Amino acid sequence: MIFDTISSISTDTITALATQPGGAIGVVRVSGSKAIELTEKVFRGVGKKPLHEAKGNTLHYGEIVGKDGKEIDDVLVSVFRAPHSYTGEDSTEISCHGSAYVLNQVVKALIDAGCRQARPGEYTQRAYLNGKMDLSQAEAVADLIAATNRASHQVALSQLKGHFSSELSKLRDQLLKMTSLLELELDFSDHEELEFADRGQLKALAETIHERISVLIKSFETGNALKRGVPVAIIGKTNVGKSTLLNCLLHEEKAIVSNIHGTTRDVIEDTTEIQGITFRFIDTAGLRNTDDQVEQLGIERSYKKLAEARIILWVVDATPSLSELSDMQARCEGKSLILVRNKVDETTAEELSVGDSHCQIVSISAKYKRNIDQLEQLIYASANIPEINENSVIITSVRHYEALTRADESILRVIDALSMSLSGDLISEDLRICLDELADITGGQITPNEVLGNIFKHFCIGK
Q: Contact, 32 vs 53, CB < 8 A?
């Protein structure tokens, strides 16, 4: 059973642009029980067979006309019969010229014929409600549209193909087996000697489930980085060439470059792609003692960004002291620290060496773009991104991460209860909670309107 306010969405026939105006070709999508009938009202085909008699997955040439009977454009109409369409409903797609005026006139003609303008994400929402995809796959559609690099595209494609759903399905099958055995015992509670579920085997299975959920939870850090860009903070003293390096990595003049100390007083951010991964570079204010309150605020923000970054590029133009090195390593604990010796074109000073520092070192000239490719290779390696393909299962959604975290807490309580030989009813309750949390990810149980609305409102109209 689905809430009435959600199920009522399927009663209307909807229309919207499926492509952005301005291209050579534009597509207008129609979906609903009257999709073919209402499309036929505005379509004059050149064939003898009317559109309502057309078979599914067929293409028809003709023209779209307005309510005044005047031609709007020559078009091709694709006909899809339920349930063999994106939404699972009868659908048509009208391919016409990509002019914004033409597309808007086609949509207007369809609305005049009886269609309703689709809401953002309504097509995919209908696909979910009609069982064409589960909720996690529906969310992957938005991720696929928003993908800006090869890795995020592959992760979204994997989720859309159902690899994440399949993983969750396996976990749920194992949990259901455990729950069924325990609840069978409860049905025979009058016979205390009966035990259908071997506690040792249950504990081993629960631990296996915990390990797999933990792997999925840990993948969120990688998934979030792929989605938003791996954060890389560029830090160092004033006038060591941080802004020049940022411009060099971004391949554009993003930051102001000057020999005057303290030029950068605020954080500057932008992204670029290295070997298919998006990196978010953050140029920070130069670190130094200053009485300038504005510059000091920038320095405070620099340290904040350092804490948020996954990779730190510490730019120097001379060998740092042991105390400076020790302080920086303490601030960068748990992060990848790359010591970047800049301005090698201006000095013949000693080879940069900081002893047993456990940080990577590279010498460059940002001004003349020397060894930048070597630095980019170090940055990519430091991101520690696993090999991504369309079969990879990586969590990118905060909603999925939170549900998995709650599921893991429940299965850990199950493991503790089994270790303490607690009663089956307590164990069964936590198993049920774990099952519900996993089901919530794919929408296998009733999902509140608020959750569904929040998911689909971020989609573009036409999807």
A: no
Residue 391 buriedness (CB in 10 A; 0-12 / 13-18 / 19+): exposed
In whole angstroms, what is the distance from residue 457 CA to residue 279 CA? 27
Yes or no: say if 411 and 178 are a contact pair by the CB < 8 Å rule: no
d(CA 98, CA 62): 16
pLDDT tens for residues 328-378?
888 888 889 999 998 887 655 445 555 545 678 899 988 888 999 999 999
What per-residue confidence (pLDDT) applies to 346?
A: 66
In percent, the amount of the chain with pLDDT more than 70 equals 81
The CA-to-CA distance between both ends of the chain, in Å, stands at 24
Q: How far apart are CA 118 and CA 105, in angstroms?
A: 16
DSSP 8-state class, residue 22: T
Q: Phi-psi bin for 76: left (phi > 0), alpha (psi -120 to 50), beta?
A: beta
Task: Count other Cβ atoms within 10 Å, centred on residue 253.
Answer: 11
**Can you point out the beta strands (E) in 210-334?**
230-236, 268-274, 277-283, 311-316
Give CA separation, 394 vs 214, 274, 384, 401, in Å.
Answer: 12, 20, 14, 10
Task: Judge whether 340 and 245 are in contact, CB under 8 Å.
Answer: yes
Q: Are the C-beta atoms of 73 and 62 separated by less than 8 Å?
A: no
Query: Cα dist. 413→212, 348, 419, 427 in Å?
Result: 16, 62, 10, 8
User: In this structure, which amino acid lies at residue 275?
Assistant: Q
439 phi and psi, to 5 degrees? -65, -30
Residue with tokens 């850990």: 412
pLDDT digit string (tens) for 23-50?
A: 899 999 999 999 999 999 999 998 778 9
115 Cβ contact list (under 8 Å, min separation 6): 12, 13, 14, 15, 30, 32, 38
Q: Are 433 and 414 in contact (CB under 8 A)?
A: no
Please report which helix (H) or strand (E) contains residue 150, including its range.
helix 150-160
What one-character DSSP code corresponds to residue 310? S
* Cα–Cα distance measured from residue 410 to residue 435, given in angstroms and rounded to the nearest whole number: 9
Name the token pair of 218: 């840990």
**CB neighbours of 122 closer than 8 A, spacing ≥ 6?**
9, 14, 16, 456
H/E segment holding residue 166: helix 163-187
268-274 vs 230-236, strand pairing mode: unpaired
Which range has the worst mean pLDDT, 204-213, 299-308, 324-333? Answer: 299-308
Cut 0.85: pTM above it = no
